[in-house]
């Protein structure tokens, strides 16, 4: 028997062995996993622990990042600072792919700015998801709304000319005053002091602190947030003492002007402004509760104030510096102004007629970038790009300076050349606008339209009135050369320099002086008006009797007010209205009602687009405007970038109100949110489930070698399994039949113009027995289908759950999550799950089937593509195994075939219509509020500029050097545009299912034409079914096993099911 000491020794030894073995095993696993992981992007060598902490300069980081990008020959580089990954993107391609097309919209923590300096109210620094503030900003600063501030911008530019006439040496002070006056008037409606205004001074100081503190690595507390807890008196805690000073400045900047606007509103003297308008709507008792509150208005106003304070000043300063260094550009711009405008000062109506001046504005934004490094983003989950691993939690920086000085985009980038933006005297749409200075993706600054308009009117006014040149020293000696250096910070501008402003002629001096006289008169009138309003408000507060005030005073005030209103209305009525986009001639009353065909509308729209040489068309059907977009550029600009006002849906009387499809999220008004809908993005269908279903398809093709195109079992089986967990028993399964019938009725009911009730919704009230009410009788039959489609499979899932036999599915997981829900909310949440499951089901059947049938038709008509694809698969698998999902990266040609199958005869040629919620302007055209907007996917995917020889099936168009070419736009418009695009829950399931099915069929079968009883080949038709979801008319073809080995693969594909 062992003694206690021996037992302890044995136990200790055993424990040590177990611990060492476990640690060794963990280290081996970690090492093995590390070897399998993708590499990080290239970057400078990292030191232990601190990484690149000492490599990143404290100022002008963007230049160091650009230098590293060239050194490592990579537009994506990786840095590490004390364990925090930093990803820097230095090309348009990388920022477009990651910051625009992927969800890289979160922000890092910003301990210094948000937690110590109190900037957590700023929408630009908030974590992603601040929809209320962003919506309020977008509604306030859209292209239509900012037109109401053009008078303020014009007045500010004219005042600047006046001040430059009297004291040109103080030009920087005058520019800052002008920018401050504009942003204060627009945001708060406050008239600032002529000089040394406290609001402007506070804003300038606040922006300067923001610019300093937002630079990555500027303060160590951003790397080690725990440092924020050290006492302010400790050595090294200078950042905390500085933060306290800056906190007061930030608080004053957001609180003081907002309080002044509220005070003016109480007195009844507040002019229109972002704050006053929003507060008025909020306090209006006749309106329903709004989506925002007073605090959010204050925060949005503060963000607008800070965003427009120094950026405009630096942009104008860069312009002045450019005119000094490049006098030939100044002369050319002035020549254009003189030719177009003549002997008057510029106005906003001249903007379209002065393309060279607009090019100067764009070059000013590009040449010396005001925001060289976009505010950092945060990656919320691990990602992969170009074979590099981007770790979750990485800080991502868009190097706007490097992009705007990329020689491939902008040759000779360090020279000021407005001509780079022009072609044949007009702005060249092929040259990328330098709007990345406003940020990237969803976090792009919504104040861009206001900034561009204010910079344009200031620049064109200065060019029209003054010659800008180098300053001369006081002794009349040599010329003072301006510096080329910039100030450090995230918002940067030229170091202070001297220059001269000389009036171009005596006529200019007279025009500026006339503006000065009008300005004095205007100020006097506005001051009198404010005095009168204050008197009246004081009378109200003191309950004075108005009868004691002389009637002559009231008469005079009334006459002045009526005259002012009349003059304003006259001016507005004389303002020319922008034209509508081109389109076919409209008949009285009915418009284009008889022009729009009942079927294949997309082809007619494409024909009109070519006929009118325009990718944006306007139609009118009995008073309803229809806008048709037929290019990627137009759909990107409107449905993607302006999605805030283009994401709503039309009423759909036939489909929603008569056929009962109101449950479909794709048809709902914008803003409908579902609690469990995000879960569907994870439920893309298990790979083994899809492999089994593809295997069953291969076996069925073997037993019936003459396959009739249109068999939807596989697609339906997968979709119903994902949505409901129901196993399909046969090809005539009742749920599949129900889905096919319901989807077919939906496709017919949604066609634009197919039913007059969509144009005249009141027709839905006529009795079904009346002549001409056939649509109501059809709708009644179809509504039964939609109701059964919604209820039956969902009820089956619930039954299986009650029995404890329900497999995982979207419905079962959603219902399972409801077990602990509040009983009051249970019904509504269950309804959400039911409706979302139906949307998944209907969206995944016909679209996948149509795409696969198109692929089969293409293989018959283009046998050379089939042979090439089969050769690619054979070289990879050697004919011994079926392709798997893991083979997709190694089979780019098959991916190209799948893409071409979606492009050649696309499943959804006309995307479900969007509704424009407020009037908009695009390319000089007016787009009326309430317009129905169509994305013509068929026209886009058959655009010869994007896809040469578009009517031929050519997978090679998507390849470059044997790999998928990222420069060729993917044809996934079938899933929609804009915010409606990301809501399609079946995209990834459909794409992966199509790929594995195509790869499996090509690996095992030759698809050939069918032979009739007499031995003659049956030519398949190339005709397609008209509808919202389109597919080939049913045709016959033959599937022949390619070899004995292929036959063995087919027979073994379905084992174990």
Strand order in the sheet with the most strands:
12-13-19-16-14
Oligomer: single chain
Indicate the low-confidence ranges by residue numbers.
1-13, 26-35, 518-575, 673-685, 706-711, 823-828
Return the structural class.
Answer: alpha+beta
Number of distinct beta strands = 24
Gyration radius, rounded: 34 Å
What portion of residues belong to β-strands? 5-15%
First-to-last CA distance: 59 Å
Helix content: 40-55%
Mean pLDDT: 78
Shape: globular
The total of helices stands at 33
Main beta sheet strand tally, sense and closure: 5 strands, mixed
Plain-language structure description:
The protein has 1057 residues and is of the alpha+beta class. Helix content is 49%, strand content 9%. It contains 33 helices and 24 strands. Strand 4 (383-385) and strand 5 form a beta hairpin. GO terms for molecular function: heme binding; iron ion binding; monooxygenase activity; oxidoreductase activity, acting on paired donors, with incorporation or reduction of molecular oxygen.
């Amino acid at each position: 028997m062992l003694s206690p000491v021996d037992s302890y020794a044995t136990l200790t030894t055993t424990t040590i062995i177990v611990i060492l073995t476990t640690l060794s095993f963990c280290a081996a696993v970690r090492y093995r996993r590390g070897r399998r992981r993708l590499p990080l992007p290239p970057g400078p060598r990292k030191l232990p622990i601190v990484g690149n902490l000492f490599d990143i300069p404290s100022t002008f980081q963007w230049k160091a990042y650009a230098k590293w990008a060239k050194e490592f020959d990579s537009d994506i580089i990786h840095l590490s600072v004390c364990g925090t990954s930093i990803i820097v993107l230095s090309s348009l391609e990388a920022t477009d792919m990651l910051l625009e097309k992927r969800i890289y919209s979160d922000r890092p923590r910003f301990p210094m700015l948000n937690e110590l300096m109190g900037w957590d109210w700023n929408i630009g620094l908030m974590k992603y998801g601040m929809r209320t503030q962003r919506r309020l900003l977008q509604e306030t600063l859209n292209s239509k709304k900012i037109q109401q501030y053009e008078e303020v911008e014009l007045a500010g530019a004219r005042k600047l000319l006046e001040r430059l006439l009297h004291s040109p040496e103080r030009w920087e002070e005058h520019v800052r005053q002008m920018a401050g006056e504009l942003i204060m008037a627009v945001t708060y409606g406050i008239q600032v002091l002529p000089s040394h205004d406290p609001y402007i001074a506070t804003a300038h100081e606040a922006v300067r602190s923001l610019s300093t503190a937002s630079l990555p690595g500027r303060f160590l507390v951003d790397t080690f947030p725990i440092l924020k807890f050290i006492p302010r008196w400790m050595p090294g805690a200078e950042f905390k003492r500085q933060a306290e000073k800056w906190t007061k400045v930030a608080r004053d900047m957001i609180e003081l002007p907002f309080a002044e606007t509220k005070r003016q509103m109480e007195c009844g003297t507040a002019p229109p402004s972002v704050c006053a308008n929003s507060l008025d709507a909020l306090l209006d008792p006749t309106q329903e509760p709004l989506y925002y509150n007073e605090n959010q208005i204050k925060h949005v106003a503060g963000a607008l104030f800070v965003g427009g304070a120094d950026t405009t000043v630096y942009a104008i300063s860069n312009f002045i510096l450019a005119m000094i260094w490049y006098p030939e550009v100044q002369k050319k711009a002035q020549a254009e102004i003189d030719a177009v405008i003549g002997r008057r000062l510029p106005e906003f109506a001249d903007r379209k007629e002065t393309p060279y001046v607009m090019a100067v504005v764009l070059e000013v934004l590009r040449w010396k970038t005001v925001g060289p490094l976009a505010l950092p983003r945060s990656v919320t989950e691990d990602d992969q790009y170009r074979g590099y691993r981007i770790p979750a939690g990485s800080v991502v920086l868009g190097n706007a300076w490097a992009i705007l000085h990329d020689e491939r985009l902008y040759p000779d980038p360090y020279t000021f050349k407005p001509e780079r933006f022009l072609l044949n005297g007009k702005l060249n749409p092929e040259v990328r606008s330098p709007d990345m200075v406003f940020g990237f993706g969803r976090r792009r600054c919504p104040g861009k339209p206001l900034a561009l308009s204010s910079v344009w009117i200031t620049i064109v006014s200065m060019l029209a009135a003054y010659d800008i040149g180098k300053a001369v020293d006081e002794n009349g000696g040599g010329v003072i050369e301006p510096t080329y250096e910039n100030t450090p910070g995230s918002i940067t501008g030229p170091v202070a320099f001297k220059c001269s402003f000389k009036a171009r002629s005596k006529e200019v001096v007279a025009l500026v002086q006339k503006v000065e006289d009008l300005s004095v008169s205007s100020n006097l009138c506005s001051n009198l008006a404010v005095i009168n309003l204050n008197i009246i408000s004081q009378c109200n507060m003191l309950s004075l009797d108005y009868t004691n005030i002389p009637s002559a005073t009231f008469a005079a005030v009334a006459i002045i007010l009526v005259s002012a209103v009349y003059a304003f209305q006259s001016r507005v009525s004389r303002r020319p209205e922008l034209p509508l986009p081109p389109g076919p001639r409209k008949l009285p009353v009915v418009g284009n009602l008889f022009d729009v065909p009942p079927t294949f509308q997309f082809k007619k729209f494409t024909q009109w687009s070519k006929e009118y040489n325009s990718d944006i068309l306007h139609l009118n059907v009995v008073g309803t405007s229809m806008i048709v977009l037929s290019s990627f550029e137009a759909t990107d600009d409107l449905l993607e970038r302006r999605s805030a006002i283009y994401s709503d849906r039309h009423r759909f009387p036939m489909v929603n109100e008569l056929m009962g499809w109101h449950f479909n999220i794709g048809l709902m008004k914008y803003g409908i949110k579902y609690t469990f809908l995000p879960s569907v993005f994870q439920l893309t269908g298990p790979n083994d489930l899809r492999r089994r279903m593809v295997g069953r398809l291969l076996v069925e093709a073997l037993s019936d070698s003459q396959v009739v195109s249109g068999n939807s079992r596989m697609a339906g089986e997968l979709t119903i399994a994902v949505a409901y967990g129901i196993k399909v028993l046969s090809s005539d399964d009742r749920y599949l039949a129900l889905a096919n019938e319901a989807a077919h009725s939906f496709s017919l009911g949604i066609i634009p113009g197919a039913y007059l009730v969509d144009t005249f919704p009141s027709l839905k009230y006529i009795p079904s027995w009346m002549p001409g009410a056939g649509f109501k009788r059809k709708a009644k039959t179809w509504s039964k289908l939609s109701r059964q489609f919604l209820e039956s499979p969902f009820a089956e899932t619930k039954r299986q759950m009650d029995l404890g036999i329900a497999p995982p599915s979207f419905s079962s997981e959603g219902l399972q999550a409801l077990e602990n829900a509040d009983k009051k909310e249970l019904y509504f949440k269950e309804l959400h799950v039911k409706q979302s499951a139906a949307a998944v089901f209907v969206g995944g059947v016909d679209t996948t089937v149509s795409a696969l049938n198109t692929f089969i038709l293409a293989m018959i008509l283009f046998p050379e593509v089939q042979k090439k694809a089969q050769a690619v698969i054979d070289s990879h698998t050697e004919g011994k195994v079926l392709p798997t999902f893991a083979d997709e990266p190694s089979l780019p040609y098959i991916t190209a075939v799948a893409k071409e199958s979606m492009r050649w005869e696309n499943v959804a040629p006309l995307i479900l219509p969007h509704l424009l919620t407020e009037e908009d302007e695009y390319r000089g055209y007016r787009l009326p509020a309430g317009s129905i907007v169509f994305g013509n996917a068929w026209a886009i995917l058959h655009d010869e500029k994007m896809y040469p020889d578009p009517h031929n099936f050519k997978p090679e168009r998507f390849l470059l050097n044997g790999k998928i070419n990222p420069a060729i736009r993917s044809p996934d418009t079938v899933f929609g545009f804009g915010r409606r695009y990301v809501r399609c829950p079946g995209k990834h399931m459909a794409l992966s299912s199509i790929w594995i099915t195509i790869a499996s069929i090509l690996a095992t079968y030759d698809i050939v034409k069918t032979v009739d009883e007499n031995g003659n080949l049956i030519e398949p038709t190339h005709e397609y079914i008209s509808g919202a979801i389109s597919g080939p008319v049913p045709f016959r073809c033959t599937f022949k096993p390619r070899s004995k080995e292929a036959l063995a693969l087919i027979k073994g594909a379905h084992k174990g099911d």
